Amino acid sequence: MLFDQFATMTQDAISGLGVALLPDYLAGSEIAEGRLVPILERSVPGSGVYWSVWPQSRANYPLLEAFRA
Fold it and tell me: Where is the LysR substrate-binding domain positioned along the sequence (predicted)?
């Protein structure tokens, strides 16, 4: 799925519908609350700081592990 609205992407990632690439001002609180977890160990460079995130409930999902590798 492709979305152009960060709020939709955030909710869909929390719901387990896929990976989201979010700016830190949106992902930061969700990560701090444990609702999302970073996929990679660092942010993605861009015009701001972005995180690839995934729901906490699937933190060790095999496909995610393959993506990280």
Answer: 2-68
Helix (H, G, I), strand (E, B) or coil at 12: helix
Q: Is the pTM of this model over 0.70?
A: no
Mean pLDDT by 10 residues, the chain (69 residues): 75 88 85 88 68 78 77
Question: CA neighbours within 13 Å on the CB side: how many for 34?
Answer: 1
Report in angstroms the alpha-carbon separations of 36 from 18, 27, 47, 54: 11, 8, 22, 5
What are the contacts of 29-38 at 24+ separation with CB within 8 A? 36/10
Q: Long-range contact list for 11-14, CB < 8 A, 24+ apart? A: 13/53, 13/54, 13/55, 14/55
